[in-house]
Amino acid sequence: MRPSEDPGGPPEARGAAEAIAAEVRGVAPGEVPGRLCRLAVRLLPVADAGASLRGDGVPVPLCAGGDRASYLAEIQATLGDGPCVSAAEAGAVVLARDLTAGADAGRWPVFAQQATAVGVRAVYALPLGSGAVCLGTLDLYRDTPGGLTGPQLRTARLVAGVMTRALMELPHGGDAWLDELAGGHDEVYRAVGMIMAQLGVGADEALARLRADAFAHGRSAYAVARDVLAHRRRFDPDR
């Protein structure tokens, strides 16, 4: 694996590209996302990093450098809202510079509340892909408000670019861990089908009910979906 774009530019950009190349040299594509999440924390002014794959309505957590990244990926999957969801939908970089006040806090109020409760004050989400094709997002979490400088954003784009290339180079049919992720995503949609039948509602309403139940009980959408499939949780029309 090598960075997917010529670093060029100032010395700091070349240094970042060299660090990325060293981190992924000789590494199987399936191992690259996790390595790059950890590297991003060393290269950028962020406290944690993760990545999610884009799913139909429910992003699928791909990897996380630490507990906060993992937690906030699940929160966004459960809410269906947040900077990383917005970046995937738009296929564009989203820089939430201050989740404690102002426009960013107002744009994703519930997510902002959950993020700041665990000490995250800013989020930077970069799409994985190019042009109209967005595979997911690289998600960077910072514990102080603020933005990224031009060179820092370029470094983040380099990391996202190499991660995209790794995902596209996975063997046909995916890797074992990717198949497992897809299975978790399928569980949500099978559960949505059961909720549709239980409540007599459409798919959007059933997914909204699953998400609301998960959030109300402090659980992930995936955990509630598994309970629905195992018949441990039923959605009744009068509830």
Automatic annotation (TrEMBL):
A Pfam family reported for this protein in Swiss-Prot or TrEMBL: ANTAR
Record's keyword terms, sorted: Transcription, Transcription regulation
Listed transmembrane segments: none
Residue span(s) of domain ANTAR: 174-229
Protein name: GAF and ANTAR domain-containing protein
